[in-house]
């Protein structure tokens, strides 16, 4: 390969889709990835995809289209997403689904479905693999397409190539430099480097929140930092919202154990537990059906950390308290796994967990009174199955989890990176989480609206750059 038509920085879902689409359209691509292998966030991703009006919906008699999908996103995001970018991706998302299905992606036969782990759509339009996490199944269908283009000489993949600098001439981006001193030139550079959910200092600067993450360790904000170095503006600031609750990390890692996460979605598992803060006080109706509302109230809780408190009766009856653990397995983790506690009395439990003992005892007594009365006078909880009285008692520590980062590089409707004054930086494009998830989610989580837009935008940019190449 001589001088490529496009340099793509980052071989995650957006970068892979961009490189493959450009090569499909006749372009040549230098694909640079700092990790030893491709995939980016896919090995860690739940792999949820969504679209309005694709074949699996048609087969199941589900009537849908991109405009109805837009209406749902707009409702959930409270109009905080960018309408231009949201409509742009939603028009392409059915084609993304058909592309992956034609390439051999096998999805759970129970999908398309409505997902209640996020604020739900009104229409079943989310698909995912049967395996958890589902991201590796998507990578498995992208890899053969990538390999075919590599074999044909249309994509030159360089792993362990850490891009550290954008090369500029006359205000335009003309290439990149890597940490080993190599310099590469092309008419266009596409940043597809992901978010910054594994960069504590940058996260504190831009999101201003405590960081407990499920992001890939490669999500260190490289593209965002490089974009800022050449004058790029930012979008999505002030839109951060956490995912609702995960056990604290262990062994000094930033990452939560997403396979073993507390089951806190009330429509899927009505709660027998209560939620308390450090003072031992309840702060919401635990059976609140809107996960979006729970996430927003969580941002007002001290350090966005809370404990689910329950007794032996609840552990027996309300299975599973934690995904992947039986009641016996949860009990066995007490005192061994950080954040999982058991005690014969509430005061002892509070001491182990770091909760105010007097506050917890008073809160449990008050809650038990509500159960006896059949009415929660504090928060209006209606599901009151049993008092918390049977020892041993349990507490699970829950932290806010960063699935995605909301701030990112500002782009126009063609995914060209813009300066703070709104003018575009010639030769520089961005797709995926590096543009910030707020672009198409606003201050919310919309099912399938992280992974699918990354690939949709990647495909759109890849085709455009190949089609306009000299």
Topology of this protein?
Layout: E1 6-9, H1 13-24, E2 29-33, E3 49-50, H2 55-59, H3 66-76, H4 83-102, E4 126-127, H5 135-151, E5 155-159, E6 163-169, E7 172-178, E8 183-185, E9 189-191, H6 200-206, H7 222-229, E10 234-235, E11 243-246, E12 274-276, H8 291-298, E13 306-311, H9 312-317, H10 327-333, E14 340-343, H11 346-353, H12 357-373, E15 393-401, E16 408-409, E17 416-418, E18 424-430, H13 438-441, H14 451-467
Parallel strand pairs: 1-2, 1-9, 2-5, 9-18
Antiparallel strand pairs: 3-4, 6-7, 7-8, 10-16, 11-15, 12-13, 13-15, 14-15, 17-18
Helix pairs in contact: 1-5, 1-14, 3-4, 4-14, 11-12
* Helix-strand category: alpha+beta
Largest sheet: 6 strands, mixed
Instruction: Work out the helicity level.
Output: 25-40%
Mean pLDDT: 95
Low-pLDDT parts are none
Q: Treating each run of at least 4 consecutive H or I residues as one helix, how many helices?
A: 14
Q: How many individual β-strands?
A: 18
Query: How far apart lie the N and C ends?
Result: 15 Å
Name the strands of the widest sheet in spatial order. 5-2-1-9-18-17
What's the quaternary structure here?
single chain
Strand content: 15-25%
């Amino acid at each position: 390969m001589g001088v490529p038509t496009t340099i793509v920085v980052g071989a995650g879902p957006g970068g892979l889709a961009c490189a493959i689409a450009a090569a499909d359209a006749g372009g040549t691509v230098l694909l640079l990835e700092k990790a030893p292998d491709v995939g980016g966030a896919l090995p860690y991703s739940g792999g949820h995809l969504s679209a309005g009006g694709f074949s699996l919906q048609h087969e199941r008699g589900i009537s849908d289209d991109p405009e109805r999908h837009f209406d749902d996103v707009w409702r959930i995001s409270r109009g905080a997403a960018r309408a231009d970018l949201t409509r742009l991706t939603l028009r392409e998302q059915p084609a993304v689904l058909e592309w992956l299905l034609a390439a051999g992606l096998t999805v759970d036969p129970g999908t398309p479905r409505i997902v209640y782990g996020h604020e739900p759509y009104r229409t079943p339009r989310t698909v995912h693999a049967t395996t958890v996490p589902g991201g590796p199944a998507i990578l498995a269908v992208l890899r053969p397409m990538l390999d075919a283009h590599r074999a044909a000489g249309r994509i030159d993949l360089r792993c362990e190539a850490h891009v550290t600098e954008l090369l500029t001439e006359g205000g335009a981006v003309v290439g990149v430099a890597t940490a080993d001193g190599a310099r590469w030139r092309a008419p266009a550079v596409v940043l597809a480097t992901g978010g910054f959910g594994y960069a504590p200092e940058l996260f504190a600067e831009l999101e201003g929140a405590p960081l407990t993450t499920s992001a890939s360790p490669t999500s260190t904000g490289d593209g965002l930092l490089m974009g800022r170095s050449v004058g790029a503006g930012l979008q999505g600031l002030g839109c951060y919202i956490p995912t609702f609750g995960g056990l604290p990390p262990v062994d000094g890692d930033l990452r939560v154990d997403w396979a073993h996460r507390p089951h806190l979605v009330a429509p899927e598992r009505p709660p027998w537990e209560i939620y308390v803060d450090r003072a031992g006080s309840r702060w919401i109706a635990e059976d609140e059906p809107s996960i979006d509302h729970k996430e927003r109230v969580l941002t007002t809780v001290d350090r966005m950390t809370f404990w689910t408190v329950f007794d032996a009766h609840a552990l027996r009856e309300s299975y599973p308290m934690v995904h992947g653990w039986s009641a016996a397995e949860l009990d066995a983790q007490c005192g061994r796994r950080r954040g999982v506690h058991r005690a014969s009395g509430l005061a002892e439990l509070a001491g182990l967990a770091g909760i105010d003992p007097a506050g917890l005892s008073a809160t449990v007594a008050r809650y038990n009174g509500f159960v006896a009365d059949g009415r929660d006078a504090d928060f209006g909880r209606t599901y009151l199955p049993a008092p918390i009285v049977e020892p041993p008692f349990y507490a699970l520590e829950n932290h806010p989890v960063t699935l995605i980062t909301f701030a990112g590089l500002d782009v126009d409707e063609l995914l060209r990176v813009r300066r703070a004054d709104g003018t575009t930086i010639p030769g520089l494009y961005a797709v995926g989480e590096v543009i910030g998830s707020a672009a198409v989610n606003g201050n919310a989580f919309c099912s399938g609206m992280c992974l699918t837009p990354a690939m949709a935008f990647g495909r759109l940019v890849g085709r455009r750059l190949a089609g306009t190449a000299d």
